Amino acid sequence: MADSPTSYARYSGTTMFPRSAADLRSTTHCPACFTALSSVVCGNCGLDLTHDAAAELALVSTDVAGLLDERTELIGRIRFESALAARQAAALADARAAAAPTAAAGPAPAPPVSPPATTTTTPPATTVAPGLSGGVGRPAAPAADAGPRRSSVQVALIIIGVSLVSIAAIYFLVYAFINYGLVWRSVIIGAITVTAFVVASLLRRRRLTSTAEGIGVFAVVLVYLDAFAIRANDLFGAGSADALVYWGSTLVISALGFAVWHRVSALRVGSVAAATAFAPGVGLLVAGIAEPLDGSTRLFTALLAVGAAGLVHPFVAPRSGTPTSLSVAERAIAATIGGGGLALAFLVGFQIAWVGEPRVSLELWAVAAVAAAHAVVVVRSDDASVVARVLTSFFSALGALALALAVVLLAFRTLTSAAAVLGVTVAPTVIVLVLVLLMLRATAPGARSAFRAAAYAAAAVAASMGLIAATHVVVNAVRAVTTAVESSAWSLDFRTLVADPHPDTVAAAGALALVLLLVAGFGRLTGTAARLRTPLVWGAVGLAVLLVPLLGSLGGVVVGWLAEAAVCVVALIWARRTARAADLPADTPVAPRLRLPLGVLAAAAVTLGYVLSWASLETWALGSIGTVVLLVAARWAVPDGLVAPRAALLATAVAVALGGAAAAGYQFGADPFVDRARAVAGLAIVLFGLSAVPLPGVLSALDRRSVFVLSTAAIVLAAPFSGTDTLLFGALVVAVFGWILQRGVDGFLLERRVAAFALAPAILWLLASVTSGLGRGSVAVELFPVVAALLAASVSLAIAARTGSRLRVAGDAGVALVAASAVLSSVLLGETAWLVLLLAAVTALLSAVSPEGLFAAKSRRKHLGWVSLVLATLALWWRLDETSVTAVEAYALPLAGALLAVAALDWRARRGNETPVLVFAALLVAVVPVALSTAGYAPADGDRIARAVLVGAVAAALLLVGSVARTAAWARPYLDASAIAGFAGVVIVAVGQCLWASPADATADVWLAAALLVLVVAAYGQCSGRPGDRSFTPRAGGAIAIAALTIVAGVEATLLDPSPLGFARTLVTVTLFSAVHVGGQLANRLPFDRLAGWVALASATILAVVAMATGSVDDVEWVSVPIAVSLLVAGGARLAREPGLRSSPALGGGLLVLFLPSLIESSDGSPVWRLVAIGVLAVAAVVIGLLRRLQAPFVVGGVVAVVHGLTTFAPQILAVYSSTEWWVWAGAGGIVVLVLGARYERSLRTAKNVVASIGNLR
Q1: Closest of 838, 835, 780, 843 to residue 811, by C-alpha
Q2: What residue spans of 775-829 are helical by DSSP H?
Q3: Domain extent at residue 491
Q4: Global pTM exceeds 0.90
Q5: How many CB atoms lie within 10 A of CB 236?
Q6: 521 in the same domain as 464
Q7: Are 338 and 304 in contact (CB under 8 A)?
Q8: Residue 492 bridge partners (DSSP)
Q9: Is the Cβ–Cβ distance between 315 and 277 less than 8 Å?
Q10: Has residue 733 got a pLDDT over 50?
């Protein structure tokens, strides 16, 4: 220090110069040598940071860093503003050179080079002027001319301050109006307004731009308040003037004045206000002058005037010497207001033209003219900015839209009905084509954009009119289809008129055809026919489909669509044969572009004809047969290489044939329902069998698969309803065997598997028909499904011996389906369910057998033996239930014994890893059901308590033996199984006994304590192994400990109530869990490690919440203080262990738990002891934080002290605020905010220093 009598600089020792400001702000590096700190004494230079002057050193370092940042900011400002001035001069020179009549020959001069960007060793303060990395003389990038960016926070502060001061000024004016006379009112208003303008201009000259702009906004607000006051006080007769004329004149005059003010002061707020007020002022002025006109015309005239006034937008220029890019906002505002007014004028004008009497829509023509003027002005301004392009597109589109609608209304009102349909469809199309032609002929980019936008807008009208015309034709076609579809099948005569075309419909069809011709001619004229060919062809296809319903009668429409499809199919076949005759590839048609449209037309026509044919008895056969013939014939039009389309056509023909078979069976059969199903099933079985026959050259593999899929689906849907025809189902079984027994058809493996799957259902249907014919008894009827499954399983096993195992899985799936349905039906409806379950178990066992046997087999098929065991167990339980056996042991112990037997046999056969799992399952089956039977909500009785004690003792023995015993490694899994089963039994018995115990006595606590003791002993037993002992399982012990804590917390939460015993339970449990948390964090040894400690803390927190909710404790401190103390003790231990740890993660949670609950409780009235305790503890935390240099106690204690003080003295603060008018506080606050905004950078630097000082604390 300069004024110190003794200089200590010579004792500084190792002192390195900082590399950047970040080194000065860092709290993890030594401030002398900048080496990373591992303790409070630097290990490199030995600087002791526990000295009293260390805090002062940190503050000085932070101040120096701030000064370095400010120095770098000043250097950056000098470079930026110098480069910006050079850039603006270059842009002005380029603009003048572009305005010259001729351009000088030779290469253009190189743009001036910008000064180098600031580079410094202080990364946070590095300043690079935006946009200066490229050439500085390119006016085509106006976005780079922007000045230095202001902080968004500073701008927000200025906006808020101006808003508050404006509100206060408004209310002050109202106050002045009420309390002062006319002279003083005028003096006050004028003085405030003039002062605002003067202050804003002076601030702008002093380069306080943001603050000046904010005061300028306030001045603009005052101008219009003055205008309101002039009219309210009737100065100069303003009160008697027309309101619209007065305010319109005010807006226009003020806009001109604001523009002059902008030129003089260079404040942007002036130009923005002028651009905003001018067009609305003109509109209001015109509305006031046009008062004699009717309401709609007056509104239209005013809006049109707003749109016309918006023509000033290209002429909105900034102050001389500034780039034109700075006027983008003003131009956008003026254009937006003008465009909005013109758009509203268009809507009002359209409404007037729609309901008005004149035949010529002058309003729309006027809108079109003004919009065209806007577009011409923008295009001629040679402005290539984004705003100019948007304005060009908007005004061009609006003008074209108005013009197109005017022409449409003219045609609609002057022509007859049919001619009007023709005119309103064709006229907009002509306008679109003319605009597109002009766009293609235009050379200037702006003109091309204008014509393009206009063409799009007119195209929208043309599309709407075309859609209306198409709607007439489509509605006629839809009427024909819906008339036939909505009628019941075969209910109409083929001479019935399904459509009655109106002359308007014919005119609409003619208009659409004429539009297609016009577009085609336009394509030939402009050379764009290739691009228009595709939409024209598809439009012709659609029109061809829609013209057929004009024939009227049902028969004519059906024949017409079928004939249209036939013509298309013949044309496609002819095209393919022509290609073959010309030695072209087989898949090359003569007209490639017409193949797809002709195919789509044929598909649509044949579909519609087929659908409509079902409406008449005379036409359905023709439609079905004709459709099948056309689909089969269409295969000849498809090249041989396109296998998928040919298969799709064949599949569709098969589906149509199946539908025809169903109709024939329904029409000609004795029993319509059964005969229809029998006809479909018969044809499907024939097709199913034929698909198994190879026919090379006729049917491809995909064709056979398609027929297979469709016939299979038809069999599944129709066979169950086709009666008891034994011959039919016998044929089905033969067809299935035909697919299964094929050889050398590996390509059809999936189909053969499906056939194998269908074998069991086919045998089921065959046995059902046989038993129905023989009249067997009820027992046979119940047993034949499972017998069918058994036979299918046997056949599947025999076939697997011949064809391999590839089909057996599918066959087993069919067997499973049939067996499952048999079991389900017998369980729900039968009387011999146990016998069916037993036969199903035999079936499952038969499916589980493989050549290697059962237990020694490597195939996964052996696992079906478990299904057999389950079914056999169900059969046993079913029989026991029928004989009224209720003892749980009779149900559980036989199954456990069976599992142990299986485990023994498996161990004998393979000695595999599955044996311990089986033993574990057996123990669970033996323990868990019996343990569950001891739980309940009935009153306690000696027998049940004795059973509970016995089962609990057995489970505890299993758990302790499995946890404590030490044995060979091969037996360890069996001990683990014993421990897990015993754990489940102990938990179930203890929890079950606690659930029905009354909270008023300690019975539940005794059971819970016993279970906790056993679990803790088991946990320590799991963790008591020695190194090298393979039975050492510490993680299991930790899991048991966590489970014990969770169980105790959950059970205790259900027992809490507002009684002394509930209070004792809460206090003991929360304290115990908090102690477990401390022990786990300090010792970190299994089973109670840190994870268990956090689980204990979470459990204590949940119990605390439940205790407060149930009323077990009255004061929150009984549960919050133990938890907070445990967190603080554990956090303090972490701080001692880890020198680099900050105090927030270590102590923050404990401090919050200590203060927040009590602080919340004190918000609605609390005893004095709580208020005093909160204050004392908060101050103590702040003092400890300062003394120990700990951040968390200092911050949390300070915040709590402030909040506690505010909540305590809130009534007194509210009284002071209510004693003064609110707008006075608003004005004062606005002034404060404005001052903060003006001094934002310095205030921010001060705040950063304070935050950095707090951040230096640990």
Answers
A1: 843
A2: 778-803, 808-829
A3: 415-550
A4: no
A5: 9
A6: yes
A7: no
A8: 616
A9: no
A10: yes
